[in-house]
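User: Can you help me understand a structure? I only have the sequence.
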Amino acid sequence: VFLLLAGGTASLAWKVLAPFGPAIAWAVVLAVGFSGPWRFLEARMPRRRALAATLMTLAVGLLVVLPAGFLAGVLVNEAIGVFGRASAALAARNLSGLEDVLRVPAVAEALAWVEAHTGLTQDRLLAKTGELAAGVSGLLARLSGTIVKGVFDAGLAFVMTLFVLFFLFRDGSEIVRAALDLVPLEEARRVEVLGSLRGMLQSIFRGSLLCALIQGATGGIGWAVAGLPSPVLAGAAMAVLSLLPVGGTALVWGPGALACWLQGRPVSAVFLAVWGLVVVSTLADNVLKPLLIGGSTQLSTLVVFLGVFGGLGAFGLLGLFIGPMVLAFGLTLVAILREATRRPAEPAAA
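Assistant: Let's start by predicting it. Here is the structure, written out as tokens:
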């Protein structure tokens, strides 16, 4: 009867909490990621935990909102810049409409070749182009509504995440203690297991994800100094690819240096190659990452790689954090199970 009640209650609780699943997951990720600053603030405000949790939650909210707003603004500015350069190029050639484009010699030759080999006349091509433009405009109209709804949902989920995060900061120690009481180990071993799990999570956040963000930022700076377009996008690509066990950021700055060389800019090419090899790759992996991890338990590159990219496929952007955390927690459970199975039997009474 107890098992039936427990199963039924768990099923109902899952249905109740399912709509808030992403917000709860993001709150857990942020709570783990900012556990160090929270312990620092908690130690200085031991009798005002609610106020400390409020201040920490507001600080996390600002740290998330401000960079996200800056990134969105940069991407919008880059899109506007691309559109402006394209419009200026068309205006320089006195191309104000589709008829002007059709009178360009290269376009006219291409249309003549298409008509000779396919039988499609210019009028039919114009009609097909109009139909395609109408379809694209309808698709953009639908996407605009979807984007507006997505922005509203994201804002609501962010507010819910901060609400849950406040309680995780304030009552997190009690929640962890309640979970540890369910582990079938002695008290000293429980504390040891908790420290090992905390070390692996710090290895994920500090040694892998934070280092990846720094590599993306430094890579984007080098990309901009080299005079290549879209440094923000290039930096974001380097941040993601830095998690790969082979290639990493070189998959971005390498082709960038080659492009500078082919453009007749050898100084920029050599600078980007040296910057990428020394600053973005070598210093980050061999100096910065050990400093960020410190004495915490490191996860293998394979575990982080599988967790990040497997989590992305399963949960989207949230999986970038949840995936490695799940694998780290799974490794901890495996260690507990191995210890339980290897525990020596008590000696028989004489």
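Now, to help you interpret it: The CA atoms of residues 216 and 239 lie 4 Å apart. The two ends are 41 Å apart (CA to CA). Let me know which part you'd like to focus on.
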